[in-house]
Amino acid sequence: MAGTHSNGRDDSATNNRRGFLQTIGLAATTTGLVGTAAADAGADQADDGSDDEGEGPLIELTHGVAAGDVTATTATVWARAGRDATIHVAYSHDRAFDSVGYDRTAVDGESDYTGQVRLEGLESGTEYRYHVWATTTETSYRPLRDRDGGAGARGRGRSEEDGSKRSGRNGRGQREKPGDNGRNGEEAADDAIPDAVESGTFVTAPAPDDEASVSFAWSGDTWGYGDDPIEPPFPGLRTIAEREPDFFLYHGDTIYADAQTPAGKITEDTPIDEALEIYRDKYKEMRDPPAEIAERTNLRELLETTSVYTVWDDHEVINNFAGPIEPLMPEGRRAFREYWPLDRDDDAEPGESNRFYDSFRWGKHVELFVIDTRQYRDPNVDLDSKTLLGREQLEWLKGALADSDATWKLLASPAPLGHPSDSWATPADRTGYEAELLEVVEHIQTEPISNLVVVAGDVHKSVVGAFDPDDDGEFEFVEAIAGPLGAPAGKPDDLYPALNPTEFFAKGEYANFGTVDVDESGETLTIGIYDEHGTEQFTKTIHTDDIDAGADPASAGRIESTFDGDADGWLISQNGGSNHPVYRESGGNSGGHVSDEENQGGVAWYYQAPFKFLGDREAFYGGILSFDLRQEQTDRQFDAEPVEGGDVLLASGDAKLVYEFRGADSNPGEEWTTFEAPLSADATWIDLTSQEPIATEERFREVLADLEALRIRGEYRSGDDTSYLDNVVLSR
Question: Which regions are flagged for Basic and acidic residues bias (predicted)?
Answer without folding.
Answer: 173-186
